Records
---
Amino acid sequence: MITVKDIYKTFGENHVLRGITAEFKSGKNNLIIGGSGSGKTTLLKCIVGLHEPTKGQVFFADQNFTDMDFEQRVPIRTHIGMLFQNSALFDSMTVEENIMFPLNLFTDKSKEEKLERANFCLERVNLKGKNKLFPAELSGGMKKRVGIARAISMQPKYLFVDEPNSGLDPKTSILIDELISELTLEYNTTTVVVTHDMNSVMGIGDHIIFLHDGQKWWEGTNKEIAHTDNKELNDFVFASKFMQAAKAKL
Amino acid sequence: MFHSLGRYILLLRLSFRKPEKFSVYWAGVMREMVSIGIGSLGIICIISVFIGAVAAVQVAFQLISPIIPKTVVGSISRDSTILEFSPTICALVLAGRVGSSIASQIGTMRVTEQIDALEIMGVNAPGYLISPKIISGVSMIPLLTIISVILGLSGGYLACAVSRDVAPSDYIAGLQDGFNHVIVTVCAVKSIVFGFIITSVCAYFGFYTSGGALEVGQSATKGVVYSCIWILFADLIISSLLL
């Protein structure tokens, strides 16, 4: 479980996060949603330690991650997998090398064992046999799947996903969402997904946090989201005519 | 300026933290050595031969007179090639070739979140990305400079042989005349320092890139410009201290 307590983040005069407190449970798809500039990605970066919060703390299980130095964070980081918005695959490495990279650095496995794990991860994301391709040779959806394969190579306890559906067609988006959801159950990970894709929200949102203007505005599940009377959330969720029509049918 | 200097020193400190796994870093050093050393060999060979030839021709033009021994062309070409032309001009060329590559490579990794990905995994990103480049720079650039000196002096010989202003035998005699090995020490110190400046300064600008493709280009340009300035400044300091 991950707990964030009273997180503030300020960039100069810009107050991006203003006192966010939340819990992200293990074995659940925890979604952070909100409009552009609401602070979703900043919150995610504060949780994983890419940004240091101006105020507040982040706990992984009971360990205060915020107060740790780089060396102290390493054991926790080896349990973290992250899929970035643009996949962030290492351009100079093949698919296989990308997946084996954390294994090379943080495990004492033999080359055969690492290769076996890489092949398993690739098979898990339906990319069997793509070992020797470079990221430049992959489509957007394939890059995301390799990103997921790399993220799960160390069998993480915590999985962070930033905008998994950006730049993908609806069908591939659903496949990626399903994959994230399956892996969450399979590894019992605490999964935190930043998204503004309503298909993801309705499809895999076990636990949803809605951010508005740097604050937590609403919290609930995908079943509750359609029946809320929160104006800002309704404006966000039912912005499109398609969603308005769907709501009318409910 | 002090803010940047402080950040640069802190980045260097982070770069030389204990590696997560020595073998992975060692592989990185080997890759960078090939990239910097072998990758730059062609351009260094070409410019060195021409620099040596031009130096010999110009010294011959200015100093040939009945009262000056012809061997002086070889002596002056040797000293200027070893002391200045090879280490400094090679370093300036390498700042363009190697430095811009380092800054744009690291800068691209920054803007495409690859450095964030390293940090998330628990990898010391400055150590993994920068230390192999610095180690390769301070080891390969002196080697390239040695090659440059040999080719520069050979270029002078060729120029003498072709132009006939000075007999090649006089040039060779001049190369051996009054040799002071301090100039070799100065050359070695310069090339090591220049190697460090090129790799570390360009890595610094690449590492702190923010934005997109435009900023990556700007970082590469800044890296090259600042390394050239620091190379010339270090050249003056080293020459003043050691000669």
---
Amino acid sequence: MKKHLINLFLSCGLLLLCTGGLFASGTVTSSELIANSAEYNGQRVVYSGEVVGDVMARKDHAWINVHDGDNAIGVWISASLAGNIKNTGSYKSTGDKIEVTGIFNRACLEHGADLDIHAQGLRILKEGGQIKRQFDTGKRNAVVILCGVVVILWILTLLLRR
Amino acid sequence: MILKPRLEDLKIIGFYLGKIIFGLALTMAVPIICGLFFKETNPCLDFIIAIEVSLILGLVLTSLCRTDKDLNWMQGMIVVSLSWFVAMFLGAIPLYLSGHWKSFLDACFDAMSGFSTTGLSLVVDLDHLSYTHNLWRHIILFIGGQGIVVIALSLFVKGFSGAFRMYVGEGRDERILPNVIHTSRFIWLASLVYLILGSLALGATGILEGMRPVNAFFHGACIFMAAFDTGGFTPQSQSILYYHSFAYEMITVMIMVLGAFNFKLHYHLWQGNRREIFKNIETVTLFFSILVILSATSIGLVQSGIYDNAVVLFRKGFYQLISGHTGTGFQTVYASQFGQDWNNLALVGLICAMALGGAVCSTTGGIKMLRLGIIFKAFKEDLKRIIMPERAVVIEKFHHIKDTFLNDKLARAALMITLAYIILFLSGALVGMFYGHSFLNALFESTSAAGNVGLSCGITSVGMPSVLKITYIIQMWIGRLEFMSVFTIIGFLGACIKGKK
């Protein structure tokens, strides 16, 4: 009996930990938002991803685009919150990974029926930074070899013409 | 009796194909300049490799197939057909080397999508793609829109009658100026003037909307090329949604419409003949077509109930419609929203818009407005014949730069091409349905590929089956070249196998 009670206690603990973890994270993905846009419309959601492209300042607000690996979703954010974003994703850099809490709009009337999130809070999960790219020596070697082939062919062409 | 092609035929085809490859190699130098400006070393290497491969192929072809002879119709058509396929393979090299395309087939898909000004894409992680590769994606739209052969004609050809045969083979059957090489140069001049003006307008708007100046002008140039050439690629993964800007949407609508006009109409407008725009059968048909399809799409969107007020409904519906009708493929909604939020009526409206396209001798794909106008006139003529007394002489004419009397030959040609397009749309839809997609979604994607549009309802993705990728590549190719060159190459291959010496 004691053994059964311990097992039950441990199982309940494990279940609580799992579900607690789920609710604590509570983030939705872009695919879920787009696929279930009617259900999420007007709801408060937590969405996370990398900031890509430009932070586009518009008076006291800004537009940012946050990519979670599947899609990027536009986030309408106050200028003060946008000020916390230091890096945006591009070829040379990874953008800050952020978590946005805000209201999801399936067809936002304020912004021309765009599917967007109006941010109420922002948390930087991981700062982005420069991507260091090594010079590709394999490609350099290919360039040199192919260059040699082009020159030889060109000389042969000239000789053939004569 | 079908004759087997001679070695001489192959030599002539190979020689002119080699010349076109040189032209293509030259265009790959532009992204390198961009790469040097942005200090992107590895991407520059990708383009040097692609140029070298092109030069090798070009040198081999021009040396082995050296000839002074001019092209005949059959050879001209085959050169065009093959040059588009060769361009796809060569254009895909730098894309594949970037590592943003999962396979060479995916890179070829995007290259053909670019050259045919379609805009469907299989790129992965576009938001981290280099400026160099991104510019190339848009340059291939620009090259494809004006025509690969048009470049070669403008740069490398001093004057030969075969030029016209290649020009026609590229899906253009109208000369703006008496000389086809002057026509090609005019097409480039007009495109470059619009490129400068359009890029400046979009760049300035980008800055006003909060983008960094360098990005604003880079995006401006890319978006212009995609809009004017009715291509539909964008530098970021969200298409036009990325900008969150009404001004940006309006400017792109204007550029898309400009791109959908006949270059001959542009020439007349440049010459001061502004009345032509109100009289031309193509612009009149385009106006009525947009009006009818917009009405149907709007009713569909009202029934869907996704857009709460008329202004936003019009903004979303009109933008997607113009993007589809001009064959551009810019989106301000997510791909899967078409399938889940737009009802069947709205989708069918959009499919019709994509199928119809813009003007002939423009950068758009699809059936085209001139053919639609001619078919409408032919129906009208037949109706008049039924209604009027037997002795009455029924004459129908239309205005396209000059007044032309409608005859059976014109009507037959228009109907034939329209029928061929419908078969092409349906055959792609059948393949899509084979892979489990619904009829409407499969038809949507197939029409988008064959009409060189680029709107997607979500079928086009990295994970789609290779057969479907190849189907869409072939559809994009056939759709862009408008059948004639493709029929010729099929006949040529048949003659190689079954022909007699």
---
Amino acid sequence: MEEFIHGLSRLELLKRGALGAAAIGGADALLRAGGAGAAVSAPKPGGKLVVGIGQSFEDINVLTAFGYRWGQLMAYAMYDTLVKYDKNGRAVPLLARSWSTPNAKTTLVKIRQGVKFHNGDPLRVEDVVWSLNRIHDPVKPASNNFLALPKDIWGKAVKVDNQTLRITTKKPARMIESFRFWFIMPENADDLNLGEQPIGTGPFQYKNFVKGDRLDLERFPDYWNGSRPYLNELTFRFLADEAAQVANFLSGDVDYLHDISVATLPQVDGKRNSKLIPSGLFFQWWQPQMYFGPLKDVRVRQALQWAFDKPTDNRVAWGGRAVPTWNPLERSPYSIGKAWPGGGPVPKYDPERAKSMLAAAGASNLKLNMMILKDPGPWTREAPVLQQGFKKAGINANIQVLPAAQWFDRLYTKRNHEGIAVNAGSLPFPWALIANYMMKATLLKNPPKYPKGAIPALEAAYNTAFSPKNEAQYSASLKAVQRLMLSQAAAFHTMIASNQNVAPKRLMGVDSTLIGDQRFDGAYLA
Amino acid sequence: MRLLTPFLSLVGVLLAIAMITFAIATALPGDTAEIRVGKRDDLTSGQRAELVAAERERLGLDQPVPWQFVIWLEKAVQGDLGVQEGGGSVGKAVLERIIPSLELAFLTLAVSLPLAALLALRSVRRGKRVFSVVAGQLSTVGFVVPQFWLGILFVIFFAVLLGWLPASGYESFRELPVEHVRRVIMPLITLVIPTTAVFFHFMRQSLREALGTQYIRTARAKGLSETAVLYQHAFPNALLPSLTVLGVQFGQLLGGVVVVERIFNWPGVGGLLIYSVERQDFSTLIACVMAIAAAYVLMSTLIEVAYRMVDPRIRRA
């Protein structure tokens, strides 16, 4: 079996990715994530776990539901993917028993036998083929959670025999890294109304869904993976309000709080005989409007880099738990290192320097719009802190709070946001996606109003990272993205913090990875 | 026939509300098709634009707004309120959510009204000045205290410290009646306090005004007991303004208690309304508004009928 892509073994590739991820957030803290989830005694079957999550769900149809809490937590309980990543960043077979790459554009996948759907039907190659093609259907919208391959890369999936399917791509693709996002559904799932009755092959099956309140799941007795799952019942409670999260945890109504904010953490940390389980990384940044307004001028953007009061921000808005950086790829395998591109010092908070640079750029008394989301998040605390910091640099900033729909509309659809806009996400793989997260809204392939990209070289590097001909080109394009992103000030002030989950001390075996995935199939109450 | 008139006007009111809601919904910033398609990192801008156009056509958003409304209305009268983003029926989703909202609203009114009446009657009695002052002050506090804070306070007290009640959640009354009742207590108290305060203020003021009128003086001159004066003469007259407030409060309790729903995870229609606005799910948004409006208008109509029954002057007008 050929296990190489672009001259680099998959194992090596993933190892390198995982090491980079560990390095970003502070290796010690993050590596404990695996330890916290590791089993220390023989799994004990039975029991119920109630997981509180900070989002309310009205939709549990895997084809349309979205949000990282769905895609990296809830969906994994009901649906299996072809592979999962383990705590070391290695791909572990799930529904794919094995895979091989006869050439850079073809992947053969052998499907695990003896797997059943929750309705009792056996998993067939046809189900996997249908799922993969449906995810990539250019006409029917599917949830963004699937992270489908770009259309100019995806080819098609076809059945080879009763155990094997072939995936072909139009260009070389890093296929294995996408396998963990692709939930496998029964063939023709569009007709099955999965929103009312989810049918997957996952460790837990649907029991009850109270929109806006909870999703109740129960152990799937025919799960393919040995004696898993160990828990009899798993409930996800939707607690969008932070105060309600704390109250529900302290009252014992909720056992496990998923990804709680830094503001909430001190109120529950260590209470009710609990422990912390880190999972994945949350990162937040500010995107400038590079197509019009004062930030069109690269000198103004560069001056602004010196006006972000990172230390105060970290202390006040992040409880000192974040890692301030400019470059999220700084310590990844593809990093350009810590040195600032083009030489010169790495920007730090220096309002006087920002002021003089703004004056030199003819932008004294800069008026800056800061667009943030109405939804709760670190930005609600961060924006006023930065606003105060800007004031010392002579920048008159105002905070514009918008509901998610309007924020999305301005940033991604109309692209008419003014000044800087907050954006955030959990750390994804592949690495190119980080660049995508950071750049997509401002660095557009074809912005509707602006035919030319603000920084064409950056756009070119960004596009290349999505379909590299080989590993060298992938690495080079990611490095180019970093260099241009920093030197052209195309993204500001990245804060990275490890996601924290509060769990009962006796809860063992939670599969909590560096990349934010959480699975409860191996979880048990000791 | 006169009693039926308010019910006949209900249809017209609902139609007007539907038109206004539809107009507002379509004027909201954002594009439903764009949001449903999402970011789609896998598509080029051109491919994504095609997908958005297809979605717009599928949702009927490519038609002129008035025509969209006609299509919606035609389907709505046949009971088809559209399909939610996840594929579920809008009608079913709204029905599922309006029932818990109605339950909470009716229970709140059922507790608040008699409680406010008792407090108001007692506070206007002669020789109850201290009670009147204390009740007045407490009701002011109940009126101004934020429901969010009150709700959290109850959760901390009853769920965290005493452990008597679950912090939040919803259980079906049919399946788990005891658990259902346990879960309704805290949101109910959270809503009863400000609602009682509002009713109390209105009733006490109405009673005071009634007690200053000549017919009360006549009643007292006839030698009627204070209880008879209050309950038989003053209270029925003071009740009328409170009926007006009841209609307003009902509407507020139905769609305006999102904060309480959120704290206690009560799956009411307010949460769905907010969700539909955030997701630009116009079918659900309009259905939510219509459901709230229908319940509100129905309640107002019933109050109007009650007015006619209670007050002979209106009956004769």
